[in-house]
Every structure is written in structure tokens, then in C-alpha cells.
Specification:
Layout lengths: L2 H13 L18 H4 L4 H4 L16 H13 L5 H29 L5 H29 L3 H27 L3 H4 L4 E3 L6 E3 L4 H8 L2 H38 L2 H66 L1
Antiparallel strand pairs: 1-2
Helix pairs in contact: 1-4, 5-10, 6-7, 6-9
């Protein structure tokens, strides 16, 4: 990455997608790598190491990462669960590789007696402690923590004395020809091979190296993500229970019964009004019919007299 690209990436991390007017990558897109958003994509963490696994197939965009961090601070987006599943699959694959490497060593290395195996493991363990403390002392010194660095170096010197005694015990309990053979062990963190005769410098380079520290970061991140995912899953379970309880609660049933009762009353009032309206209409029709018949009776004598007069005139 050029200096200009590094500056652009740093600016994107600070400003997010507001840096310029170029097309934006949304962090919610499924094509964006969620482990990357959470800082634990193995493709990035193990870049340029012995176990470099190449470029990630998903999008790594620092501006989108900055947008995610801002949005997640305001509202829990629960991206941790997806990232956990992806990272867990990778770590499980590495653990299977470690188991296979151990089996290969058992098959290829000369079998040792139980007592010799214990002594060999003692040398390995002390050597690992020396390498880890030496690497940590160098980091503390680089950070300006001189006192802490000196304290760690004192512990390293004590461990070196212990290692010499352990190596002597190991050498004395087996033939010289066998002792010269490199007794290997598989690193439980990163799957690298470590030799019982590795010097302190090599061990320090291993335990303070990018590969080993990268795997420590990934494993610690997986543990943290699993805890967060468990908490989020419990929250979702509680929410579902509350919604189910709310649907089945007595207050909800009472409210439903009250609404049904009110609808029945409303329909009953509507039917009553309709009956009254129909009754008034029938009464009106009856009165009009009666009035009509009465007027017909009143007009009948007049028509009779008129008809009689007409007959008389005709006779004359």
C-alpha cells in the first residue's frame, strides 16, 4: 500500500463515507465482511505471515467500517453473531490442523518413555515461557516502559537457569544419539512447529511474531464474540417471551372481550334504530291510506247526486 493509499485509509477510518462524493459502500450490504468490521478477519490479521490465506472474497472498506462503528454506538446492530460464526469456522479448521500435526509427530518421531516425555515437555514449557516473556519485555521497552521491561528480563534470566537444569535432566535420561534428534512440538495457538533445542531468540521471535500474536488476537476475539452473541440471544429470547405473554395476558383477553361486547351493543342499537325507522314508515303509510279511503267516502254522495241530476235532465 502506497503512502497515499495509507493516508486515504486513515482518513476513511476517521470520517467514514463522508470523505468524498464517490459511490459509497454501505456497511449493511451482505457483501461487506463483518469480521472485518469488527477487526477480526483472518485474511487481514494474518496478512504477510507464513499462514497468509490471501485476499478476502468479501469487501473490506475502511469508510464503511467507520460508519458501522458510529451506527453501532447509537444502536446495537448485532453484527457480532455473524462475525462469530465465520471466525469460529476458521479457528475450528486451525484446531483440526493442529490435531493432525500432533498425530503426524507421534507417527514420525521416535517414541519416548513416559519419564523422558515428561522431561522433554518440561524443557518445552520453560522455553515457551522464556520466549513469551522475552517478547513482552521487548514490547514494553519499545513502548517506553523501561522498568517493566527490566523486571521481565530478570524473570527471563531465572527461567533460563531453570531451563538449563531441565535440559540436563532430559539429556541424562536418554542416549546421546537420540538426544541429538530434534524433538518437536506443535504450538497450540498457531499450529507452528517448535523444537526442544530452539534457542531463546527463536522462541522470542515466534511468540512475539505477527503470526502467533495474530492467532492470539483471533482466539481472544472469538471468545469475546461468543459472549456477546450469547447475551444477544438471551435478549431475543426474553423479547419473544414478553410478546407471547402479552398476546396471552388476561388484560389483553379482557380488552378483546370488551371490544367484542361493544361491537355487539353497537349492532344491537343499529338494529333497534332500524326497527323504529321501519315502524314509523309503516305508521305513515297506514295514515295516508286511511285518509285516502276517508276522502273517497266523502266524495261518494256528491258523485251520486251529480249522477241523479244528470239522469233527470236526460229524461226531460
Amino acid at each position: 500500500m502506497s503512502a497515499k493509499d495509507e493516508m486515504r485509509a486513515m482518513l476513511a477510518q476517521l470520517m467514514g463515507t463522508e470523505v468524498d462524493n464517490t459511490p459509497k459502500v454501505k456497511f449493511t450490504d451482505r457483501s461487506v465482511c463483518r469480521p472485518f468490521l469488527l477487526g477480526c478477519c483472518p485474511h487481514e490479521v494474518l496478512d504477510s505471515t507464513r499462514m497468509d490465506i490471501g485476499k478476502c472474497r468479501q469487501i473490506h472498506d475502511y469508510a464503511a467500517k467507520a460508519d458501522y462503528e458510529k451506527a453501532n454506538a447509537e444502536k446495537d446492530l448485532d453484527f457480532e453473531t455473524d462475525a462469530m460464526y465465520e471466525l469460529r469456522a476458521f479457528i475450528r479448521d486451525i484446531d483440526r490442523r493442529i490435531d493432525l500435526s500432533k498425530k503426524d509427530l507421534i507417527e514420525t518421531q521416535e517414541e519416548l518413555s513416559t519419564d523422558v516425555e515428561i522431561k522433554a515437555n518440561m524443557v518445552h514449557d520453560i522455553g515457551e515461557h522464556i520466549g513469551k516473556k522475552l517478547a513482552e519485555a521487548e514490547r514494553q521497552g519499545a513502548d517506553g516502559n523501561v522498568e517493566e521491561s527490566l523486571k521481565l528480563m530478570e524473570e527471563v534470566e531465572k527461567l533460563k537457569e531453570e531451563k538449563k537444569k531441565a535440559e540436563m535432566d532430559y539429556r541424562n535420561c536418554m542416549p546421546a544419539s537420540t538426544y541429538q534428534q530434534q524433538k518437536l512440538r506443535v504450538c497450540e495457538i498457531c499450529s507452528a512447529y517448535l523444537g526442544i533445542h530452539d534457542n531463546d531468540r527463536r522462541l522470542a521471535d515466534h511468540f512475539g511474531g505477527k503470526l502467533h500474536l495474530g492467532f492470539i488476537k483471533l482466539r481472544e476475539k472469538l471468545t469475546a464474540l461468543e459472549k456477546i452473541a450469547e447475551v444477544n440471544a438471551e435478549k431475543r429470547r426474553v423479547d419473544r417471551e414478553e410478546r407471547r405473554s402479552s398476546r396471552n395476558s388476561p388484560d389483553r383477553d379482557r380488552g378483546r372481550r370488551d371490544r367484542n361486547r361493544e361491537r355487539r351493543r353497537s349492532r344491537s342499537r343499529s338494529r333497534e334504530k332500524e326497527r323504529k325507522r321501519n315502524g314509523r314508515d309503516r305508521d305513515g303509510d297506514s295514515r295516508r291510506s286511511s285518509s285516502y279511503r276517508s276522502s273517497r267516502r266523502d266524495d261518494s254522495p256528491d258523485r251520486s247526486r251529480s249522477k241523479s241530476k244528470s239522469t233527470k235532465v236526460s229524461d226531460e
